[in-house]
Specification:
The protein has a six-stranded mixed beta sheet with strand order 3-1-2-6-5-4, sandwiched between helices. The radius of gyration is 62 Å and the shape is rod-shaped. Helix 2 runs antiparallel to helix 6 and helix 13 runs parallel beside helix 14. With 618 residues, it is an alpha+beta fold.
Length: 618
Amino acid sequence: MHFRELRWKFIKNFFWRFSRSLQWKLVSIFISITLALMIIMWLFLIDSIESTYYQSFKTSIESGLNKWDYKNNPNVGKEQVKDDLVGRNNAILIFYAGEDRTYAIVDRDNLDPEDIYFYDSRYKDNNRRSNYLEDLLKSKNFVTALSGETGDREILMHTSDGTAFYDYAWTNGNYILYFRYYRQDLGNTIDNLNVDLLKSSIIAIILSLLIGYLLSKTITIPIINVMHKAQKVAGGDFDQLVDVKSDDEIGKLTKTFNFMAKELKQKIIGISSEKSKIETILKYMADGVIAFNMSGEVIHSNPASLRMLGIKDANFTFYEFAKSYSLGISIEEFLEPDSSPTRETNIRTMNKIIKIYSALFTDEENKAEGIIIVLQDITEQQRLEEMRKEFVANVSHELRTPLTSIKSYAETLLDGEYKNDEIAEKFLGVINSEADRMTRLVKDLLQLSSLDNKKMHWNKKNVKLTEIVKNCVNKMSIDAKNKEQSLEFFVEEDPGEVYADRDRIEQVVINLISNAIKYTHVKGIITVSVGVRDGMAFIKVADTGIGISQEDIKRVFERFYRVDKARSREMGGTGLGLAIAKEIIEAHGGTISISSELGAGTVVVISLNMPCEASNCL
C-alpha cells in the first residue's frame, strides 16, 4: 500500500478513536473552553486598549480646547483660524502633529479639494487632496460637526489607501477643527500584544491539554474499570467487584455496579436453577413436549417426545410434523382472531395411541412467540377404557343369561307346568342353579370391588404354607377323582410360616386347582408343590391340560376373560377367578405368573415373602 494511503488511514483511525474516546472528548471540551476564554480575553484586551488610546486621544484634544477656553468664550481663536485660512487662501489646512496624528482647519462653506493645503510636502498631489476630502465626508464625526455639534464617537475608519484611524471634530462658527489619530503606532502595540497573547494561548492550550488529560483520567479510569468488569460480567463471571475510591458520582456509579453485579448473580443463579428444574422435569416427564417458533422451527424437544414418535432427532418443521401425522392445523390458523388457542387430536403410530395437545404461547405483551405440542401416550388408558366397556358388556351378559333362563322356566311353570312334578322339579333345579351362578358372580364382583377400593378386611398372621396347600389339595381331590385325574402334592422344601390371610390364600390355591381340573382331560395329571426359591416361598400348580396360547396368556388375568368361553360357562365359572387371585397375591406383596403351551398343559407359580414378624409385614 502506498505511504500516503497508509498515512491517511492512520489519521482516519486516530480521529475515529479520538471521537469515540470519552477521555479525549473531555480533554477537547477542556481545551475548547480554555481557547474560548482566551479568545474572549484577547478580544476584550484589544478593544480595551483601542478604547484607552482613543480616550487618551480625545482627552488630549479636549484638554487643549479647555486651555483655549472656547467653552466660556466661543469666539476665542475664531479670528486666528480665519486669518490662517485667509492667509493661505485655502479652505482646508492640514497640519501634522507627529507620525500618528494630524489636525485640520476646515471652512465649512468651502469644501473644494483644490483649496486643501498639506503642511507636509509628501502629500502635495491632487489625488491625495481628493482622497482626503472623500474620506473627510465619510466621517460621521465630521458630518456631525457640519451640523453644528461636536463629533466624538469612537469609530474606526480607513483612508483610501487602507490606513486605519480614529477622528474627532469640533466646530466653531463656520470653521471646524478636525483631528485624526492614526492607528499605526497602536497597531504595533497590538501586534506585539497579539504575539504575546498567541504565545500565552499556546501555553494555555498545552497546559489545558495536560491538566484536562490528568483530570479526565480521574473520571475515565474508574469508568474503564467498570467497563472491563462489565465485560467480564457479560461473559458470565459474576464475581467481579470494583473498588470504591470516592463518594462522588463515580463512586456512586461503582457502588451501583457492585450492587448490580451481586443482584445479577443472584438472579442468574435463580434463573439457572429454575431452568435446570424445568429441563429436568421435561427430560424425565412421561409426556412428550415439542416447542416450535413462529417460523415453524423446533426450539425444544424432550426425550419422551422422541421416544413416542420413534425418532432420534427432531429434524422437522411444524408444517412437516402436522402433515406427517395428519393434524390438519397450521400456525396461521392459531393467529386468526376468532381461532381457539388450543387444539386436541389423537394419532396412531408404532402401535400406540397418542393424544396431541397444540397451544399457542405468547410473551409478556401477549405477542405470539410459537406453538407448543404436548404428546400423551394414552394407549394404556384406551386399553383400560376398552376393558371397562368389555367388563360392563361381560357383566351384563353374565347376568342376562341366568336371568333369561330363570324367567323362561318361571313363566313355563306359571303356565301350568308346576302341576307336573317331574317337570317342576327339573325346572326348579335349573332356576336354583342359575341363581347360584348369579350369586357367585355378584360375590366375585363385590370381592373385586373391595380389593380395588382397598376395603378388603385382611386377617393376616403367621400361618404354615405347606399345611394350607395340603388342605386345599385334600378338598379338591374328590373333584379330581370324579374326572379320573391324578392330583399329586409334593414338598420340595418346607417354607415354614408366611404372614398371610389363610382364607384368602386358600381361595387362590383352590381356584388354581379347580381351573387345572376343569381344563385337564380325563385321566390327566395335576401336580401341586411348595418350596423355596431365591429367598421366596412358592406354590406351583402344574397340569397336563389343554394349555393356553401365547396370545391368551397375556390376558388371562383380565376380568371376564376366558380362554374357552363355552366350557367355562358350562363349568360354572365367572371369568373373575384369576383376576381375584392376582389381586389377593399382590396385596400380600407376592407375584403370580402363568406359563403354558397350547395342548401341552399349564404351570401357575405363586411367590410369597418368607416368614417375618407381623409388625414388619404390615
